[in-house]
Structure formats: C-alpha cells, structure tokens
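Good morning,

Attaching, inline, the backbone tokens for the sequence recovery test we're adding to the shared suite. The designed sequence is right after.
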C-alpha cells in the first residue's frame, strides 16, 4: 500500500509541476496577445501578428492549472478554524479530517464519472473547441484523469487520517 501511495504522490507532484508550467504559459500567452494587438493597432493593421485561440489557451490552461494542482495540494492547503476544534483531541481532529477528505474523494469521483460520460458524448458528436479545433474528448479525458487523481489522493489521505485517529501506522 505504501508503494501505491508513493506512486500517487509522485504523479501528483509531477502534475503540480505541470500546473506551474501552465501558469507561466498562460502569462506568456496573455503578454503575446496584448503585445500583438497593440502592434496591430499602432500600425493601423499594417503589421498583423495577432493569433487566434489565445482565449482558449488561457481558458483551458486555467482549467488544467487548477485541476493539476488540486491532487498535490489537497492535504497541504486546508484552513482549520481552531475555534471549532480547540477542545478536540488530536485523534478526534484526525478523524474529522478523514471525513473531510472523504468529501474530496466523493467530489473527485463524481466529477470523474461525469467527465467520463462527457468523453463519450464528445466522441459521438465530434465536438471541438471553437478556435483551435481541438477535439473536446481529449480535453475531457485529461480533465477526467486530473479529477480521478484528486479522488485517489484524497482517499489515500483520508485513510492515513483515519489510521492516525485509530492509532495505527499509516
């Protein structure tokens, strides 16, 4: 089980790094888009370096930036309000955290199922993105992978929290 956890953690870490690359790519895309539009305007259309699909690159880049960061950050970036948990023992806190992460597991699993269904619908209809004409089933498949990783990682974190609450080694 520890090998599976290490593998999932490694994949989530790589996804987190891809998320960082995507955010930089989004920034560069915005910079290029604004610059080329400015050049186009200043030259009254004489120099046209504008490109199509910038908005789609940003839109899907943001989607994957968030979805690829979630599996890695699911157990690292939670805000705990001590006002509600200050009188609880560490075991009780771990148990509550386990329930909380089971909620993330259900969220990720539910989204994974819906995107699996969306893949089939996109294949049957041949839907593509508006400007770049990327088949939507590819985007849905990548999204399904990311949400499945969220569900798996949240489940493993929940298991670890429950083991801590019960006094077992995870």
């Amino acid at each position: 089980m520890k090998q599976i956890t290490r593998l999932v953690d490694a994949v989530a870490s790589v996804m987190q790094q891809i998320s960082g690359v995507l955010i930089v790519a989004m920034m560069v895309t915005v910079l290029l888009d604004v610059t080329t539009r400015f050049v186009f305007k200043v030259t009254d259309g004489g120099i046209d370096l504008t490109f199509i699909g910038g908005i789609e690159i940003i839109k899907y880049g943001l989607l994957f930036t968030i979805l690829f960061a979630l599996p890695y950050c699911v157990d690292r970036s939670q805000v705990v309000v001590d006002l509600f948990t200050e009188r609880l023992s560490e075991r009780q806190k771990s148990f509550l955290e386990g329930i909380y992460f089971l909620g993330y597991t259900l969220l990720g699993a539910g989204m994974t199922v819906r995107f699996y269904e969306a893949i089939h619908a996109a294949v049957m209809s041949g839907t593509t993105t508006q400007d770049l004409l990327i088949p939507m089933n590819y985007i849905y498949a990548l999204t399904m992978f990311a949400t499945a990783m969220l569900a798996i990682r949240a489940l493993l974190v929940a298991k670890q929290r429950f083991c801590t609450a019960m006094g077992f080694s995870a």
